[in-house]
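I am still getting used to backbone structure tokens and would like to learn alongside you. Would you supply a protein for us yourself, any chain you care to pick? Start from the sequence, derive the backbone structure tokens from it, and show both lines together. Go ahead whenever you are ready, and we will take it from there.
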Amino acid sequence: MADQDAPRALEDQVLTRTENGVLWITLNRPEVANSITPDQRNYIIDLLAEANSSFEVRAVVLTATGKFFCTGADLRTPRAAVVRPADVPERVLGDARRMMLTGAIRLMTAIMDCEKPVIAAVPGTAAGIGAHMAFASDLVIAADTAKFIEVFVRRGLVCDGLGTYMLPRLIGLQKTKELVFFGDDISAQKAAELGLVNKVVPAAELESATKEWAERLASSPTKSIMMNKWLINRSLDVDRATIAHDEAWAVELITQTEDSKEGVASFVERRAPNFRGY
């Protein structure tokens, strides 16, 4: 008989399937509110990297099983042992910084820089870096039972996982300070009003609503979406002259793709386009 207390395989903790051009990545540890371990985090980063070069994957969905989306990092996970001289303390200056740069920040970067459009389908509570996984996604669909929490202040911590980068750009400085300073729960509907969520649907309709958008994206011109995503994400960090040249080069590049040629041909021939993703 298998040991029921034995840890589950990573592929069972993060479920994956690809259907109709959509890669579904599902956090699957509802018993711990889908808090995320370093191994899970690194696995998701690898999946997103693989999606970049995959011809089969043309859109990505991040979601979760159970009542929670993700309640942040699993703080119960023991850190890997580091060999230190006997007189060196357990933690020294630089350790936490390095952990963040190679951990949560790398995960958010992988989501934001994914070459395929990423939809977060949020079934329930998204807290800490769980909320930031949703905000890093290109589109967010939330169940009406979901809530979002900038939980860090409740633990005496600093907002991390690029939260202080994303939130001011999404909702402005004052609202960001309100969410971060107080750490209050906000409902899915409130998050939509603030601009953090694109669509709120009944919980029973979350998967179907997500599937509709994801498969629509998966049948779209993938490289066009990739270039538009890059331009939009970059636009808030550069000046007008830079984005003007970026757009000009993007047009130069995208018109060389097969989907761009198909889009023009279908318009001239008055038929629906058949985009193939390259």
Summary: The CA atoms of residues 82 and 91 lie 10 Å apart. The first helix runs from residue 10 to 13. Confidence is low (pLDDT under 50) at residues 1-5. The two ends are 49 Å apart (CA to CA).
